[in-house]
Amino acid sequence: MAQCVQSVQELVQDSFVPMVAVLCSGQAEAVTRRNNLTFAQLLRPFCRITSEGHIRDPNNQLQVVKNLRICVNNVVTSASTPSGNLSPARRRRLNEVVLSCQPQEGAVSATVTAGDYDLSFNDHCLKASAPWYSAWRDTLEEVCTSKHFTATTPWFEAYRENFLQSMPASDHEFLNHYLACLLVVSSSETVPVEQFLKLSQEQHRIQHSGEYTKPKWFIPNTLKYYVLLHDVSEGDEQKADSVYEDMKQRYGPQGCYLLKMNSRTLPAEQNEQIPDPWSQYLHRNDLQSQDQLEDVPSAVSSSADENDVSAAEDHGSAETGGEANRLEDHPLQLDSVSSSGSLQALGAAHAEAKKPARETDSASGGHGACLTLNDHDHIRQFIQEFTSRGLLPHIEKNIRQLNDQLVSRKGLSRSLFTATKKWFGGGKAPEKGVSEPKSTLGLLYPPEAPELQIRKMADLCFLVQHYELAYSCYHTAKKDFLSDQAMLYAAGALEMAAVSAFLQAGAPRPYPAHYMDTAIQTYRDVCRNMVLAERCALLSAEILKSQGKYSEAATLLIKMTSEDSDLRSALLLEQAAHCFINMRTRMLRKFAFHMILAGHRFSKAGQKRHALRCYCQAMQVYKGRSWSLAEDHINFTIGRQSFTLGQPEKAVAAFKQILVNDSRQTATQQGAFLREYLYVYKSVISRSEVNLPQLPLPCIHSSATRVYFGHERRLAEGEKQAATHVSLDQEYDPDLAAMWCKLEEQLAAAANRGVVPPNFQPSQCYLNSQTDNLHHPLAVVEEPIIVEVMFRNPLKVPLSLSCLSLLWRFQHESERTEDSSGEFITNEGTLAQEASQGDNVVTTETIPDFHLGPEETKMARLRLLPHRTGQLNIVGVVYDLAAASSGDTAADGHQKSEVMVVRGKQDLKIQGPRLNQTKEDKMFVRHGPDLRLDPIITPPMALMEVFFLQFPTALLCGEIRKAYVEFCNVSGVTLCGLRVASTHPDFFTFGSQATTPVTPLSPNSAENCSAYKTIATPPGSSGASETLVSAEDFSPLSNVVDIPINGGILHPGESTQLPLWLRGPDQEGVHEINFLFYYESPEKGTKISHRVLRHTVFICGSRSLSVQASACCSSVPPQRGPDEDGGTLVFIDVENINTSEAGVREFHIVQVSSSSQRWRLHKCINPAKENDCKLSSRERAKLCFRATPCQPPAATSDAVKLFTFADLNLGNERIVSSATPCGDFFFRCRWSSESRQVEASSARTSSGARNSSLAAAEDKRCDVAHMVKKCNELDLNLIVIWKAYVVEDNKQLILEGQLHVALQTVGKEATSLTPKEEAQEMVLLKFKSDLPPPAVLPSAELYRLVKTNMHYPETCTHAFKHNSICVVPVSLVLSNCCWTQVDVVVDLRHKTISSEASEVHSAFTWVGQSRYTLQLSPRQVTRLTLRACFVQPGVYNLNTPRVLANLAEQGASETSQQSRAAEQSPALIIINNDSA
């Protein structure tokens, strides 16, 4: 709770002090008026006795009186009847006191301790059941360290002091009755003694005539003290001394005093410091004379007279607003929202509150100007003499007299003191209960009643700090009053008995708080005297707080709040709130709630500044605790109070909080908040001339801001389809962005001789929160910059934005420096005045109207067009804000008030990504820059647009379609270096200059034309047409393709069309194919080295044909010469797997071509002699071809890889497979397949590591396997070309396509369908390598080294009668199939035991040499002549020789690895007998 400057004991003692009246003559008043003071005012700073005083009690015990203070007042008479409430003049005075005592603004608050309040408290200080406990610690520290929190409440202390001093005198107690009267006469009087006599008679008349009810006197025999006032500067000192001597003779030395003053003869110099102890007392006027000023108007009476003004306001609101407006008195009830101009009334109240306050006496000049420090001492000495020699002996004398009277009347023992000590001694606690009174006020006692005498004696003892005797008397009087049902007297006795018990030294008995509770209840409910009840509550609360009983004190203070006094209720509620925060278990929410209640009552009492302070303190507790309704109410009240007090900036900040936070108010209430805010905001911006202030609505998600550089994509024109490029309508995909970046790197490397430039930065024409924004983006002059800003309306009412535009700052390139200290150009000043002077630098587009629905999130696209190069910073948005004009209509249907429109701005502040690189970054929260809104404007750059014509969306697998692409240079700069990269390089081709057939110039002339180059063939030709082609004749095999435009450049405004051949994917489904077009400017060294254009298409692939092919060696003997073998048979299975979803009726296989460096298709073996091969749905055809090795290339072209294209057409036309597009797609598909194989092999190689101990054996075995594999390699690529007939729109269309099959190995089947990737099997990890296995090649593989053929007559007729032996010559042809020397052994002694051979005769023998050993050179063919001897006719198998082959490099030691060269089919010969 708020700390008091003085202790509780001092407070209570100063609240009840001896009262002394003053009667002055006219000349005496004139003497004191020279110092701008009355005599009573002159004495006030010196009314505290610094030395100890002494009295003796009725038992003659010496009692010490310490720090005694007396109260000196002028005598003011009144005949009015006292009431139980303060007069309106006193209320106004108390309001002025509180109003004049305000907390210092801007003062730095330190951590304070109030009572046992400690900021570093432990966990047990708060209830563990509170789920938000941990958050309350921080809140408590904020409350105590905030600038709004104060350890003391001086306004409350000033109110309490003035209230206690302004207590009206009452008949039931004597504490405020005058004990003595000072009669003051000037020494300049003619006969001073006569003036003393007149004043004495006047005092007697006032006290005993009965004409006046005020002032009241303590005892009939009032002490008269005679003071002779001598003006040293003007009076006769000898006369004064003589008069004083006469006074001592007449009144005694203890009853008079000579006070000399005004010793200063010369006026004070300008630099001389004159002490002024009266200023701190004179801000309070003489409260005893306030009854005479009841009819005098006060400066703050219109807002601070609680009873009259509050009642009038309540009455007026009831008449105008009915039942609804009466709810406004509740502190949590928001103000009426029916009128949008309600703050105008607050403005009028604010002007009224600024009226000048009433001038005080201090305005007329200084005080004590004629007094010296010696005069101060004289006055102090006078008070000391009066108190010690006059007042205290007078009180002691009256205590003895009253004690004697009471003893004699009641027949008690000699001393009441000894009796009460016997009855109530021993520390016995007073009884806890008091019976309920049966009557209201009870009887009135006469002045001489014994009960009043006891009370009078108790009050005298209390005034001189004899608290033990006072408590005994109060306790005795309390019982008498209760027995007589005199409730007002009883309540007073209970109150003072409790205070006396508390003030007793050593605390012989506990503080009887129930006495105070009973007294308060009696004052308030029975006697209807709120003034006495308030005094009792103030004293009891301070006593309870001093004992640490904050909960009881808070309860007591809250009970004293009522509707009759808003100021009192506000002060007591504030003190109760401080009690809650000082409790051992601190109650922060109760503190905040009662501060809200106190602020509400302060506001009703006209104390606007105190109300604002209370709401600000409470806001610290409610803020950030998800109590949105409470926050809205507090902020709304703070805004209104601030506006009333002439603080519109603070009002704007408070209203801003209501609108920014997610409010749970109704739409009507939010609309009222918005109108109030706009009204206050408009009053603020009316003072601002240039700079636009910040607006809180609508909310802007700065991190969601997206920026697009360049023109928006042009829509399709007729049949032209524009490139998709980048659009703000697209969602950002990080994987796609990485893919585009990879393609751009490939293009940049291709343009830079295969190396990516060191300063390469990927093009970013679209920036958002997920892109790399660490570098300044580059924009081009005269190309728009589109900024997409996300607005969110947090309210339930619509918002209307108009004149919405971007706020920017520009620095010309010539003025840019490293420290960015150049001169900036901004459009803020022009936008504030809605002008357009900045259009010559940057053209700013303005959106005229932009509406946001209730709780709607909406994007706004704002454009800038830079006209100069330099640095551009987009700093915010500027707009006019207005509440949408829905609702708020009067009964007659007209709009109540005009729409309030204000102009302001909001900054776009984007926080960069969190840094996490260094140790410091990880320890602290650091963010990098985000420069998406700070582009650098560069000089003009080439700009290209791409259009596609006849581009399909669906293709059959392998289908060939011709389309056209158009390139347009829409800029004023020449472009060159046109390239394109794609994720599917085998999907398209532009053809090559050498092999591209003549194509139509326009797409319209290309209708019903074949995409292939065709040649008519004669009907009788059956052989293959061969063409030798180099791979270099086609475009380079890579992901990057150079676009063949004429001259390699496009001039400004120029456009060109190129044919583009497309081939359907080999797999069915939807395929996403991405193109990235790349181009440059001829000028080098620019900031933008190149530009790119993106295009994405989706192709739906449908199934067409499935081609499977295999090859096997032919055993047919060569026909052309001894250097040729019999070739290889190639079998092709073609199946129609189309499901007719594309409307395809049937497929025609029109041609089969081959492409290889070693083999070629030689002839088609077709037993049926049918040229046309048609396949309907699910039909299959089998084709057989003979393949022969190609002729070896000439020695001059060894460095060039030449491919032999062989075409075997099955119709009347031959398609040139070596020309575009057939050859292009063949090479592209071959390159893509090889690239995938290389990537797979490199992945397998990198995944496993070889042991060094196995390296040699593995290498050796691999060499042998490679050699054997080389013998078995075929490397024959087949191209199956087909046509399909489709009926579409009653028109028959011809579709063409080609499928590729790569035959790599003899005996292994290949297919045109891409095999699905299978998951890699897991392999166990071995920590210890096994021993290397022997490098033995399987014997089944060695026969591939040598190929054998036997040539002999099929039949032989022999006359066995004439010659019993028949010898037949047989030729054995041996062919070396590999490119190395082979050792061959032919053994004729071997006998076959196969089942096939056992079915024929085997009784023949080879004659001549039985074993041949020879060495075959690479690719050598040799012939051995053998002779077979038969002895009888029959069918014989000649295939009995055993042929062993081995590599010549392996040596003789490897003969164990030799094997049969082949398990040939039987070679049968028929031996006939010639019987003739």
Set out the fold topology.
Blueprint: H1 8-15, E1 19-24, H2 26-33, H3 39-43, E2 53-56, E3 62-65, E4 71-74, H4 88-100, H5 133-145, H6 154-165, E5 178-186, H7 192-208, E6 223-231, H8 237-251, E7 256-261, H9 279-282, H10 301-304, H11 306-326, H12 342-353, H13 373-410, H14 416-424, H15 450-463, H16 467-483, H17 487-503, H18 513-526, H19 530-546, H20 550-559, H21 566-582, H22 588-604, H23 608-622, H24 628-644, H25 648-660, H26 667-685, E8 699-700, E9 706-709, E10 721-722, H27 734-751, E11 766-767, E12 778-780, E13 785-792, E14 799-812, E15 825-826, H28 828-832, E16 842-844, E17 847-852, E18 857-866, E19 870-883, E20 901-907, H29 919-923, E21 936-938, E22 944-949, E23 954-956, E24 959-969, E25 975-982, E26 988-989, E27 1014-1016, E28 1025-1030, E29 1040-1042, E30 1049-1050, E31 1055-1063, E32 1069-1080, E33 1090-1102, E34 1105-1113, E35 1128-1136, E36 1144-1156, E37 1159-1165, E38 1173-1175, E39 1180-1189, E40 1202-1209, E41 1213-1215, H30 1222-1247, H31 1252-1272, E42 1273-1288, E43 1291-1305, E44 1310-1311, H32 1339-1342, E45 1346-1351, E46 1355-1358, E47 1366-1376, E48 1382-1387, ...
Parallel strand pairs: 1-4, 1-5, 5-6, 6-7, 12-21, 23-33, 46-54
Antiparallel strand pairs: 2-3, 8-13, 9-11, 9-13, 10-22, 13-18, 14-15, 14-17, 14-19, 16-18, 19-20, 19-21, 22-24, 24-31, 24-43, 25-29, 25-30, 25-32, 26-31, 27-41, 28-40, 32-33, 34-35, 34-44, 35-39, 36-38, 36-40, 36-42, 37-39, 42-43, 45-47, 47-51, 48-50, 48-53, 49-51, 52-54
